[in-house]
Amino acid sequence: MALSPLFAVPLAAYEVPVVGVGFDQSTVTVLGVVAIAALIGLSAFFSSSEIAMFNLPKHRLERMIEDDIPGASLVKGLKDDPHRLLVTILVGNNVVNIAMSSIATAILSIHFGGLAGVLLATFGITALVLLFGESVPKSYAVENTEAWSIRIARPLKATEYLLFPLIVLFDYLTRQINKLIGSTGPIESPYVTRDEIQEMIESGEREGVLEEEEHEMLTRIFRFNNTIVKEVMTPRLDMTAVPKDAAIDEAIETCIQSGHARIPVYEGSLDNVQGVVHIRDLVRDLNYGEADDGELELADLIQPTLHVPESKNVDELLTEMRENRMHMAIVIDEFGTTEGLVTMEDMIEEIIGEILEGGEEQPIEEIDDDTVLVRGEVNIEDVNEALDIDLPEGQEFETIAGFIFNRAGRLVEEGEEITYDGVRITVEDVENTRIMMARLTKLEAAEGSTEEPDSEPARVEPDENDE
Ligand code: ADP
């Protein structure tokens, strides 16, 4: 009942064009419908432009320019100022959408009267814009990003000239507002960040786009630039080296015994490494060298090597070693003392995983789901990964032996145990002062609840014979 007066006027108005009296009104209606159709086309153009321009990755655009695709440089010109581009598209899109709804309201009001006209125009135009001005063109643009960005580049540039005053004004105003609210606007940030790539790798594996091995290798590549030499080096204790005054056949013997092709040569002590000799040169010179006039010396075969601090990043060192064509570098600490050596293989293993030769044992041996046997020199990061635990990383120790030693605060003996954050660490093998092997067991949740909290120092529990 309340609605009837509302429809009384429209019905009367509707009859006028039907009986052909209001010719002017029907002309207006036809013109209005044509205008709405044209505006929907424009709305589709702007919406699809937004998707095509902002979904086109930089690298693909650069490729298009390299391939001399006509129009690609115009696309680049527009994308070079993403803020201006977005304002152009938004101003254009809003002008056409609002014009469309105004025209529709005017026409529908003629036929259906004020309020009904407004309601019909609101819902009708919303439906039309959503379908034909937004979703259809946007879906098309997503699938045809490259081709569509080329097609719309020229008309978009023309729009920029046509709406120039409006665009300049809104460009200025939005920049000011962004400044006020402390935002630079997401469109001005790099098109892809490191974190985004890492997230993509994670979800890539979850979705099955990446194999597990590919995922692991990509993850390691991202970790690589945070890795320092100390984490990958062979420590001083395991270094095989020869003194400079050794005979060549002695050096060959040392290489053979140790199974290494390159050995550092030192003068006096290991803290004074002069360079490196390769077994190939030693053998070649022993057998085919010009040894007529006297003894050939080891010093003649020494190749220079790099001395690097233990805190150096491995990605930098890898580049340097490749540039200098060196396979081995000597690692020194801040006092100039030799700490160990590092080879290309040590660094490449960080990306592709452990490379084991001949009789080499696995550094981490899985006993069961909750227990592993770990060699002392294994990095804590790798132990954490293997058991899915959380021992502290990035502190003054790198290896599991370093961790045990640090927690104990003194030398430990075989059989001693540490409990830390739900993990029981048992020292399995000690040679002299060095922890060679440890067993790590993830404690059951029930058992874990009785262990000491994180903040307390871990207790070293000696076995019966100890101390
Ligand atoms: P090689 O095949 O001669 O052993 P790689 O570069 O393949 O040399 O290194 C394999 C592993 O052996 C690496 O962990 C590296 O640190 C270590 N290594 C290489 N040469 C020596 C050496 N002279 N003394 C001790 N360890 C070495």
UniProtKB/TrEMBL annotation:
Compartment(s) of residence: Membrane
Residue ranges with Basic and acidic residues bias: 456-467
The name this protein goes by in its record: CBS domain containing protein
Predominant location: membrane
Ranges of residues in domain CNNM transmembrane: 25-214
Domain CBS: 233-294, 301-357
Record flagged with keyword Repeat: yes
Source organism: Natrinema gari JCM 14663
TM region(s), chain numbering: 29-54, 114-133
Pfam families documented for this protein: CBS (PF00571), CNNM (PF01595), CorC_HlyC (PF03471)
Superkingdom of this protein's organism: Archaea
Chain residue ranges for the region called Disordered: 444-467
